[in-house]
Structures are given as C-alpha cells and as structure tokens.
Amino acid sequence: MANYLLVESRDPYQFTDAEAFYQIAADLAKAGNAVTVYLVQNGVLPARRGAKNGQVATLAATPSITVLADDFSLRERAISANNLESGVSASTVDDLVDLLVQPGTKAIWH
Amino acid sequence: MTTSQEKTLTVALMDPPYESEASTTALRIIDAALRKGISVNVFAYEGAVNLTMKGQAAHPNPVKGTSAEEQDHPTTARFISGLFGMSGEAAKLDWAVCGLCADERGAGDWIEGPRRGSPGDFYKFTQESVNTLIIGAR
Amino acid sequence: MSVLSIVEQAYRGTVEEQDDTILWLSHMLKNAGADLNILLRSNAVNYAVKGQDASGLTIGGVPLTVPPTIDKDVQALIAAGVTVYAVQEDLEDLGVPQGDLIGGIQTVARSGVAGLFDKHDTVWYW
Question: Domain range spanning residue A63?
C-alpha cells in the first residue's frame, strides 16, 4: 500500500471536478492506502465550519485520511484556523514540503 | 535512491503570471524547499515561461493613488530572482524554460538564472528527484 | 518509473498550439523512453472521439493551414505503445457511444481510477 498526498487547489462550488478528486481520495483510502488531502487556495473554502461541503467532512472523518488546510490560504480568505470543519487541521507550506519529500509518497496536485 | 535525489524536488508549472493563484503557491513551495535545504528543479512549460520575463515592470496604482515606489507592486520575475538568490551549495534551484513555448510566446528574454530547456530536461529532472509535483493550468 | 498522465481539460489553446500540449509532451516523453500511459477524464474524454475537425479557420485573413488533429494524435500515441484510458461515465455524460471512439481506447469506470493510480509509480495530473 502507498502513501498519497493529494493537493486540492480548487473548490467544489466552481468546479465539479473537485468532487471527483475527493472521491478518488476516498477510493484510495478504501483500497488501503494512507491518504493526506492538502487543501490550498480556493480548495480551503469548503473547510470553513458551516460550509456546504459534504465530501470534505466525510474525508476528514475517515481514519486513514488526514485533511490539512494551508494556513496562508485560510487567512487570505478570513477563515480562522479555529473555525474549521471537524477533523480538518491548519497546516503550513513548510509542512507541505515535508510531505512532498517523503520517499515513497505519490504527490498529485489538482 | 541517492541522498541527492532524496533532497531534490521537481515542480512543473504551466500558468502565466497574474492569472492564477497557482503561480503564487508554486513560488511559496519553492521558497520553503530552498529554505529547508531541498534543491528544486523547475520546468516552466507553456504560459509559465512568462514568469521570468526580464521586461516585467512594476506600476503605480491609480485607484489607490500610490506611486510605483509606494505600491511596491511585486513581479514574478522579481520573486524568482530572489529565489535564485537563495540558490547555493546547500540547495540549488535549476529553472528550465521550455524553449519552444518561449519562442512561440516571444518570451525569450528572461532574467538571470533560468536556462532554455526542453521536455528532455523535465524527464531528467523527474528521474533525479524524490518527487515531482505537476501544477497544471486551470 | 511508470507514469499515469491525466488530461482533464480539452481544447485549451489547441488551435494556436496545433495540438494538445499535454498529449504532445506525453509523446515527447514516450519517445525519450518514458513508461507512460494516459487517462482522459472530464471533458477531455472527447479527445477519444473519431472525426475531430478544426480545419478551415481564417482569422484576419490569416488561414490556419495546419489545424490540430487530436484524434490522430491519440491514435499515434496508442501506436507508440501508450495505453490511453477514458473514464466510461464521463463518455456517457458527454453522450459518446462506444462506436464513436478511436480504436484502442480502453475505458475505465470512475470507480477504477484509484486502481490506475495504484498501478502506476507516479501520477501527473495536468
């Protein structure tokens, strides 16, 4: 089984393809892989508590999936790190780089 | 995997400046990697060849009434020059501009640092890195 | 290192470029020895359709004498040994029947995409 780092830069409100990417994350986890979903840019919009974001909430509640949200993207959009969907944690670009250079990680940007 | 490979990341870029937040995020990633001592190979493809154009110029903001100096408008070329300033023994930045993409866009006059490249450079980069991040155009 | 190259956006700059730049790049990399396969998804599944025709354009008196021929480019990739997958449900969403597809296209269910990710060492999502 592999480690996956899925970076989602798009939101599901403008792009339905974001939902397809979330589904791939869920399918990879279901297949036994460890999955980190890193939300960045408009990809953090569904992480705001109260946003209509069904799939992000489901991903964040899945044990083998870690959902992180870029702190700069959150701040840029006035989303407090204390006001995120349950299970989503704020993260930094330094953390993202650490994840990117983990050997054996398949990194995919959407 | 060699130690050098473990400490090298490849990033492929496609967006031109001022059109997508992906350009900013890409530069943030490259900045963070260099700060952490990780070398970065960049393949600038398609519109991303415009990120390093020497002729980019800052301008004032007439809506805010600021002069060019006051506005201090950043250009991607200036940010990338700064990234090359971080490149050294501990971590190297290698920036290959897709030559054919630059030719067709008239973007051949770039700042100090980047070099003309091709898909062959990109392929070599991917084989010499711990990971490759493709930041596609949207 | 096996690569799955995913194309998700169709007809972006294809007239001026005279091809799809990711299909073109993929073919260059294949020629350089890359072990690479392609997945077409979303509107890019239309690249698998026979008979795409962008000929006859003239702008400001300047004719497009060499139009893109995306279907032929996809056929050439298949002939070069690249497996070209297309997501079945995306084809259905676009109303493309099986008979309209270029020969050699391999369809995959949306639920099978994760399996393609697992099957390849690396995934490039353009």
Answer: 3-109
What pLDDT score was predicted for residue B2?
A: 77
CATH number of the domain encompassing residue C18: 3.40.1260.10
Say which CATH number the domain at A32 has: 3.40.1260.10
User: Cβ–Cβ of B123/C29 closer than 8 Å?
Assistant: yes
Contact across the interface for A109 and B131, Cβ inside 8 Å: no
Which residue in this structure is represented by tokens 């194309």? C7
User: Is residue A7 scored above 80 in pLDDT?
Assistant: yes
pLDDT confidence of residue C64: 86
Closest approach of C115 to chain A, Cα-based (Å): 8
At B113-133, the pLDDT tens digits run 999 999 999 999 999 999 999
- How do B39-44 and A65-70 pair as beta strands? unpaired
* Neighbouring C-alpha atoms within 13 Å toward the C-beta of A28: 30
Interface of B with A (CB under 8 A): 1, 6-7, 9, 21-22, 25, 28-29, 31-33, 35-36, 38, 130-136, 138
Q: How many domains does chain C have?
A: 1
C42–A17 CB contact, under 8 Å:
yes
User: Contact C21/B126, CB-based, under 8 Å?
Assistant: no
Domain that holds residue C15: 2-125
Its CATH class, for the domain covering B3-135, is alpha beta
